[in-house]
């Protein structure tokens, strides 16, 4: 499953491309796809819950 930050970043990029194009049909399609990605991202938790490397712990003093 894709994370919220990934989907949000992709939606943002699509909106940026939509603003830069002079093709109104392409712009509308990009905006529509960005809205789809945003609706997929909205119900996800704010922090991506990806797997952590087995040798890394959140309390590791070497990482501070």
Properties at a glance:
64 residues; mainly alpha; 2 helices; 55% helix
Order of helices and strands: HH
Shape: elongated
> What structural category characterises the helix and strand content?
mainly alpha
Biggest β-sheet, characterized? none
Give the percentage of residues in beta strands.
under 5%
Number of beta-strand segments: 0
- Separation, N- and C-terminal Cα atoms: 30 Å
Q: What is Rg?
A: 17 Å
Q: Tell me the quaternary state.
A: single chain
Number of separate helices: 2
Mean residue pLDDT: 81
Structural overview:
The chain is an all-alpha fold. The chain contains 2 helices and no strands. It has helices at residues 4-20, 24-41. The radius of gyration is 17 Å and the shape is elongated.
Task: Tell me briefly what this model is.
By secondary structure, the protein is mainly α.
């Amino acid at each position: 499953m894709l994370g919220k930050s990934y989907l949000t970043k992709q939606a943002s990029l699509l909106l940026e491309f939509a603003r830069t194009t002079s093709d109104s049909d392409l712009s509308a399609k990009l905006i529509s796809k960005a809205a789809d990605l945003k609706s997929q991202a909205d119900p996800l938790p704010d922090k991506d819950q990806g797997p952590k490397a087995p040798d890394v712990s959140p309390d590791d003093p070497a990482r501070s």
